[in-house]
Structure formats: structure tokens, C-alpha cells
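Feature request, filed as a ticket because there's no other form

It would be nice if the structure record came with a short human-readable summary line next to the C-alpha cells. Right now we just get the raw output. Example of a typical job, pasted below so the devs can see what we mean:
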Amino acid sequence: MEEVKVTWYGHAMFHVENPRVKLVTDPFDKAVGYPLPGVEADAVLVSHDHFDHNNVSLVKNARHVVRETEPLLIGPVKIEGCRSYHDEVKGQQRGENLIFKWQMSGITFVHMGDYGEDALSLEQVEFLSGADILMLPVGGVYTIDGHKAREIVEAVKPSAVIPMHYKTKRCLIDLNDAGEFVSFFEHTAFCGSSVVVSSANFPSPTEVWVLEPAS
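Raw output as currently delivered:
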């Protein structure tokens, strides 16, 4: 069974790779506070054009920058997007946001970007159906907080959730930490900076994977 490695660099930036395709989500710039990693990828997924999510130049050798909802096929990996808002007032405060979904090695990943809506729309619920691993903001202030993140988990029922976009020791942005969100779940694993997964080892019921930012 082909494995996928998921590495978190902090904030909303992940590196997701199998032996054939490498993806990076929402690369940040130095103002966020995390070290800028040296990463390569076939594609960069940008949920919205704010400085802490759109540092595309950080990623080497990327042939694609994905900023739209239209499906894109990179080898065997299909990437799709769904529109959402960065706030509770239809983008009037912070604009739009893209939710990304892709299938890799039989696993369906979802990255919620800076999702900030009060509740999922019917279109979003349908788009999120079947998610195996959900990367979800939990830090509040600029996105949903721990309570609303829990509601999304209950609606989507993924196999695993990786919290993101929250306050850590290195993060300079004023956010809440992940403690509130994590406290809602009985099944929690505190991991290193990476996890290696395959479609044969999904947890059940939903498990929260708390990663450490890679240095």
C-alpha cells in the first residue's frame, strides 16, 4: 500500500508527498515567525492572497500554482477547490477563501485554508463528503475557533484531523492556541512534525493529530 508523508511547517503550510507527487499548501513569509523551510513541490495551493499564505516563491520547482476552483490533474492526483469566505459576513471583512481537496494514494485530503464562516453551506458539506484527513484552522481571531472547528469535524466525520493556524511559541500572529479544540476529543495523538499514512491504517473513530512545526 502506497504511503503519503504529511509535514507541517506551522500556520497553514503543509508538505504532502507520495513517491510521484509533492504538494505544498499556503506557504507563509518570515513575518509569521516560523523559519522559512527549503521545500520543493510540483504544485503550490494558495487558499487566499494574504502574506501568511501566499509566499509562492518559497517553493522550488513548482510547475503549478493553484488559486482557483477548477479541477487540476497532476499525474494521478486530482486537485479541486470550493469557494468559501474568510469571515462570517460573506467576505466583507477579510475576503474569500478556497477549500482544497485532493486524492493521493487512495486518501482524500482537505485543506480548509482560512475558513471563517459561521457554518458550512450545503455546497461545502457536499464538497467535504468523504474527506479522510482534514486540515482545519482552530485558532480563532481570523478564522473559526475551536468550538466551530469541532462542529465541522462532527459534520464531516473524517478519519483524522490535523489542527492548523493557531498560536505556538514561534507564531507572531495573535491567535488562540489549539488547547480548546483538542480538549473536545478523546482520541488524540501528539506527533512529531510529520506523519506517514496509508489508506490501510485510518483511525476510527476520528482522531486528532497534533503536529509540531518542522524547523
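Something like this underneath would help us a lot:
The CA atoms of residues 44 and 65 lie 5 Å apart.
Helices lie at 122-128, 146-156, 179-183.
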